[in-house]
Design a protein that fits this description.
2 domains, acetyltransferase activity, Papain-like_cys_pep_sf, transferase, Arylamine_N-AcTrfase, Arylamine N-acetyltransferase
Length: 275
């Protein structure tokens, strides 16, 4: 693989040797440059996890993707540059305890004997900096704060400090995983009729000071000062948001389809509840 185009998109030079500084910069710039979204899932497109296909989709076409694509790309690039990496699979909890499969891919990176959780594919709540795995202190990532905890079963948990209090994002262990395990999680995430990404429109992009996120009919702008929300009340509003805020090249007809199937029914219910 040649990751030159990936580096160019992030305005980075290849690292001379593995370092935490480069890892921090890569994480922040990747999340700031490439959108997290499930548009390909909702449009029932083929989603290949072959590295060249992911590079073409995320970097060359600039249409973003979800965790199995973003974290695959980062993993392969870091491995190519000499980083000690391993695949981690997590159960997404989002503060709602229930039986869920391992449908989130993360990368564990070891530098000078210290382990870091690197995640460039968890959407609006994704930490934009590596999180030290072996510290239970609250850690800053941009304007947000996270904490690693271990439960009574020895599993690791990633918590985010939100306005309403600690929020459990996902839970994972350090079992040995391979691309074959990722293929299973990926298949469930984009093919199972009950999967979150099959039934909801999700788009996000963030940097050190702000996060923009679409969740079905809701558009949010999050900063350290709080959250501003608005409703996407037409296909034109969705088209404008995807083009101007998320810088995605998308056709009006696609926005009309997404609006009709994933926004309009929920929008009606939202308006009725507030009327």
């Amino acid at each position: 693989m040649n990751f030159t185009d990936y580096l160019n998109a992030l305005d980075l030079m290849p690292p001379q040797q593995p370092s935490l500084d480069f890892l921090c910069t890569l994480t922040e710039r990747h999340i700031g440059r490439f959108t997290f979204n499930n548009l390909a899932v909702l449009l029932q497109e083929d989603i290949s996890l072959e590295c060249q296909a992911v590079l073409n989709k995320v970097v060359h076409r600039g249409v973003g993707g979800y965790c199995f694509e973003h974290n695959k790309l980062a993993y392969e690039a870091l491995s190519y540059w000499g980083y000690k990496v391993r695949i981690v699979l997590a159960r997404v909890i989002n503060n709602n305890e229930r039986a869920v499969p391992r449908t989130h891919r993360i990368t564990l990176v070891e530098i000078e004997g210290k382990r870091y959780l690197v995640d460039v594919g968890f959407g609006a709540n994704c930490p934009i900096a590596p999180i030290a795995l072996d510290s239970q202190a609250i850690q800053s990532a941009g304007f947000e704060h996270y904490q690693i905890q271990q439960n009574t079963l020895g599993e690791f948990e990633l918590w985010q400090q939100q306005e309403a209090g600690p929020f459990l994002l996902y839970r994972f262990d350090l079992t040995h995983y391979t691309d074959a395990d990722c293929d299973m999680g990926h298949f469930y995430s984009h093919k199972n009729p009950t999967a979150v990404f099959v039934n909801n429109l999700v788009v996000s992009q963030k940097n050190a000071t702000a996060t923009f996120v679409i969740t079905n009919q809701h558009l949010q702008h999050r900063t350290n000062a709080g959250t501003k929300s608005s409703l996407l009340e037409s296909p034109q509003a969705l088209y404008k948001a995807l083009r101007q805020i998320f810088n995605l090249t998308i056709e009006q007809e696609v926005c009309e389809f997404l609006f009709a199937h994933h926004i309009a029914p929920r929008l009606t219910n939202t308006i009725e509840r507030h009327s």
